Amino acid sequence: MSISDRQKEERELRKERIFSGALSVFKSKGIDGATMDEIASASGFGKATLYYYFPSKEDVFCGILEKGWSKLLESLEEEIHSDQTPRKTFINILIKLTRNAQKNRNEYEFLFNAPKAITHIEMKDQSWKSYQHRLYATLKGLLDEGIAKGEFPNLDPDLMFKAIGGLFVGLIFMGKDNKDITASDIEKLLNNLITAPKK
User: Class assignment of domain 58-194?
Assistant: First the structure.
């Protein structure tokens, strides 16, 4: 027996409520401190409903990461396929990421921080990593192209990517105000980070 569109929609809405409840629990208790009881309670469901969709806390983690990273990558498609220069495309992607993160702070904090905390989950259960790797490969590819065209200094792209990533995550999550990040803010960040020292 196949399920109707309405049943599919209701199923997705339940999962959304579970993810939202889980994110609030992870925020207050941490990943290790969160329990399925608390996730069920924060979601407004009984444990039976929670276990119907997710057999373990780790499955909830992976569900949030899969949905979040796929949605994140999809939101950047227009910027990624633009006809801009590599540097301009790189900056536009960082701006879009920052604005997305400021609107969904709990979710983005989880997307960027949780992977470091859940290394015990088997690789086969980490399907979200393919989206994460695609985003990182895209950004690194833009750095490589930008270096080849002289838009970025000729530095090691891996090191540059890690440094930009660290500063970028700090820019999103450590600031107290939620002001919009502009292209000139990102330019300043890039110039401070990757301008070769003057001799």
Answer: mainly alpha
Number of alpha carbons in the 13 Å side-chain half-sphere of residue 69: 23
Residue pLDDT, tens place only, 5-29 = 888 889 999 999 999 999 999 889 9
> Can you read off the two tokens belonging to residue 132?
């994460």
Residue of 51, 52, 63, 75 lying closest to 26 (CA atoms): 63
How many angstroms separate the CA atoms of 38 and 18, rounded?
11
Return the sign of the alpha-carbon dihedral for residues 139, 140, 143, 148. Answer: negative
Domain boundaries, the chain: 1-55, 58-194
Three-state secondary-structure class, residue 7: helix
Question: What is the Cα–Cα distance from 150 to 145, expressed in whole angstroms?
Answer: 9
Instruction: Name the class of domain 1-55.
Output: mainly alpha
Q: How far, in whole angstroms, is CA 106 from its chain's centroid?
A: 10
Query: Mind listing the pLDDT tens digit for each residue in 146-163?
Result: 989 998 887 777 777 777
Q: Which of 43, 51, 58, 38 is nearest to 115 (CA)?
A: 58
Closest CA to 113 of 124, 101, 123: 101
Distance CA 56, CA 35 (A): 9
Q: Provide the phi-psi class of 121: left if phi over 0, else alpha when psi is between -120 and 50, else beta.
A: beta
Q: d(Cα 157, Cα 137) in Å, to the nearest integer?
A: 11
